[in-house]
Design goal:
Strand content of chain A: 25-35%
Radius of gyration of chain A: 20 Å
Number of helices of chain A: 5
Structural class of chain B: mainly alpha
Number of domains of chain B: 1
Strand content of chain B: 5-15%
CATH superfamily of the largest domain in chain A: Lrp/AsnC effector binding domain/regulation of amino acid metabolism (RAM) domain
Distance between the termini of chain B: 21 Å
CATH topology of the largest domain in chain A: Alpha-Beta Plaits
Number of strands of chain A: 6
Oligomer: heterodimer
Strand order of the largest sheet of chain B: 1-2
Largest sheet of chain B: 2 strands, antiparallel
Helix content of chain B: 55-70%
Helix content of chain A: 25-40%
Order of helices and strands of chain B: HEEHHHHH
Number of domains of chain A: 2
Distance between the termini of chain A: 18 Å
Largest sheet of chain A: 4 strands, antiparallel
Radius of gyration of chain B: 13 Å
CATH architecture of the largest domain in chain A: 2-Layer Sandwich
Strand order of the largest sheet of chain A: 4-5-3-6
Order of helices and strands of chain A: EEHHHEHEEHE
Number of strands of chain B: 2
Chain lengths: 159, 112
Amino acid sequence: MKIKGQTVTLDDLDLQIMQLLQKNARWTYTEIGNKLDVAHSTVYDRIQRMEERGIIKKYKAVIDLEKAGMQQIMALITIHTDPKESERIANRLAEFIEVLEVSSSFSEELVVNAKVVAQDQTKLHSFIAQSIAPLPGVLRIRTSIITKKYKEETSQPFL
Amino acid sequence: MTVSPSRVLRSVLREEAFYFFTSIGNYTGQSAASLDEFLQKIKEVNIKSLEFHLYREDFEKWIAQTLGDAKLAEDIKGLRNMKVVGNALRDRLYFLVSRRLKDLKGSLQTSK
């Protein structure tokens, strides 16, 4: 990693370390060093710097809720908004614990997208009706309930 | 149980308004914050929305719990039990709500 002012440039080794950590964040510095043929102290140093710079944001467990016996449904919500209120709506949505992701996109018009979880359809509907529909600037909402996941990648590829 | 016409006829806060959906999570963009507005929306909203809410008992709950009109809620419950759908539902619901609105506005006038 090279740091010049506010600019950080990552080299191949940094990228390889990040890829390995995304696969398994519990690998030790030694295990990572062995895989990349570098000393564990080098790995330690690189990871420390990437953590300090906020490039590695956190380490977390990915839980299979179904195996854990917890029933949840997930839905993708598209909220058509008054363009003047989109930002405010997106920020408000981001505050709800039921909302996992919020983004905005533009096709024919500007929309706010959200991925939401709920215990069941009744609770999902109540959440949308009571917490999202009343937000000023919400024009209409389209909701798709996810019925089956074909791929769920938690790590980010470096393209 | 006595109903206060002015209470039933009032406009409620945005958070307490009725939001029309056509199915789970699909909001039409139409809402009503008073019984007057609710009547207007019955004419305009997608028929699917009226069917969705009637059979989920949403109309009865909103009218009884938010507006405080047990009588109209009971009338709507009767409509649900008749299993009316389509435009017949729209017409029947419009009739019940407009009749009740007329009564309530009449009572309000007499009490003045």
